[in-house]
Design a protein that fits this description.
It comes from Corynebacterium pseudotuberculosis 258. This is DUF1023 domain-containing protein. By secondary structure, the chain is α/β, with parallel strands linked by helices. The chain is about 50% helix and about 15% strand. It contains ten helices and eight strands. The chain has helices at about 5-40, 45-95, 95-100, 105-130, 130-135, 150-155, 195-210, 235-250, 265-275, 350-364; strands spanning about 160-165, 170, 180-185, 215-220, 255-265, 280-285, 305-310, 335-340. An eight-stranded mixed β-sheet has the order 1-2-4-3-5-6-7-8, with helices on both faces.
């Protein structure tokens, strides 16, 4: 088994880009200081115009160095993840070859590692290509041109609960009178308006299969890409926002059964929200990279469920001892009902089996 990437080379490349960025930024600062000292005693429209032109030139000259700094961050975070894959590979290499050859479980583990390596490679390449998505926070996304009128045109049966440049909360079904409300907490890239329609279609489908209401909750500032999803800060901030939203649903419809479905990084958000009490009767983690070890639901009959796809490489990010973001909710000993789902990381909400179980849970 060979990985496309190598953590050592990634770290070396990150150091090289970081050094290039630092030297360029330092040179730009020195040039600006030299110019300021040279013209500080001069005045007039010609000198002011020249000074403005120089500043514009310096800013353009500094752009590649700022980009290099962002690339260094991408490579460094990717190196960390790649090192974890290599560590798992090293454990497999310690086993006798015959044992590996004849074991279905070990064969599946090798397949997982290979798929995870390919996914990491593709994500790293995409992140470097789309640097604006990593340099800063959600302001890197193009402002949303989606208006309420346009949303209603595409989704005439939707109820818009919140809509701004980087956040959207859209309900399908009548949240005031329905018997169940499923809140879909999306993950990485969900602050990008170009991805919203996928979440809207998913929520609409969930509403149809459950017979209740479903909400596409895109109400927090999500990580822009997979390397950025190592950070816990977006989940911590989003957790409080999710808690507030679920509380508002409970007040609006006290008799409805509330389900919270966190997918991928969205499960991290939902888990952190539940650590200190979340208004939900059922909490479902799907394709989770780890959640808070303490889960507290404000419900008379709380239920926690964890779903993992049979080909989802996210399963490699956790064991019964640890996970990328806390505890692995699919590991033995975690207090959750386990759902085995066929397919990969993006197959949950399209899986007939998952949707059937979700509908049964909503009506339970």
């Amino acid at each position: 088994m060979m990985f496309t990437l190598e953590s050592r080379q990634l770290r070396n490349s990150a150091h090289a880009f970081s050094a290039f960025s630092s030297s360029g930024s330092s040179a730009a600062h020195d040039l600006r200081s030299t110019w300021n000292r040279g013209v500080e005693q001069l005045c007039g429209r010609a000198f002011e115009s020249a000074a403005a032109a120089l500043i514009r030139s310096l800013n353009r000259w500094a752009d590649p160095h700022k980009t290099a700094r962002c690339i260094a961050r991408v490579l460094s975070m990717t190196a960390h993840l790649q090192k974890e894959l290599e560590r798992h590979q090293e454990h497999l290499l310690l086993l006798p070859q015959r044992t590996v050859d004849e074991s279905i479980i070990l064969t599946r583990a090798i397949m997982y590692l290979e798929e995870a390596g390919k996914l990491l490679d593709a994500t790293c390449a995409h992140s470097i290509t789309q640097l604006a998505a990593l340099c800063t926070d959600e302001s890197d996304y193009l402002p949303s041109t989606l208006t309420a009128t346009q949303l209603r045109t595409g989704f005439p049966d939707a109820e818009i609960l919140q809509l701004d440049a980087h956040h959207a909360v859209v309900a399908f079904g009548d949240v005031s009178t329905t018997s169940s409300i499923t809140t879909l907490v999306a993950g990485v890239t969900s602050s990008d308006p170009t991805t919203w329609s996928d979440s809207f279609y998913t929520a609409k489908r969930i509403s149809q299969v459950t017979g209740g209401a479903a909400v596409a909750w895109l109400g927090y500032s999500a990580p822009a890409n997979l390397p950025a999803a190592i950070a816990t800060a977006p989940a911590s901030r989003g957790a409080q926002e999710l808690k507030d939203f679920q509380s508002s649903l409970r007040l609006r419809n006290p008799r409805a059964k509330l389900l919270a479905l966190g997918h991928s990084y969205g499960s991290v958000v939902a888990g952190k929200a539940a650590a200190t009490g979340l208004d939900a009767d059922t909490l479902i983690f799907a394709g989770s990279p780890g959640v808070s070890p303490e889960i507290n639901l404000n419900s008379d009959s709380p239920r926690v469920i964890s779903a993992l796809g049979s080909l989802d490489p996210i399963g490699l990010t956790g064991t019964k001892y640890t996970a990328l973001h806390g505890k692995d909710p699919t590991a033995a000993g975690f207090p959750a009902e386990q759902w085995g789902i066929p397919g990969g990381h993006s197959s949950y909400v399209t899986s007939p089996l998952f949707l059937t179980r979700l509908a049964e849970e909503a009506r339970r």
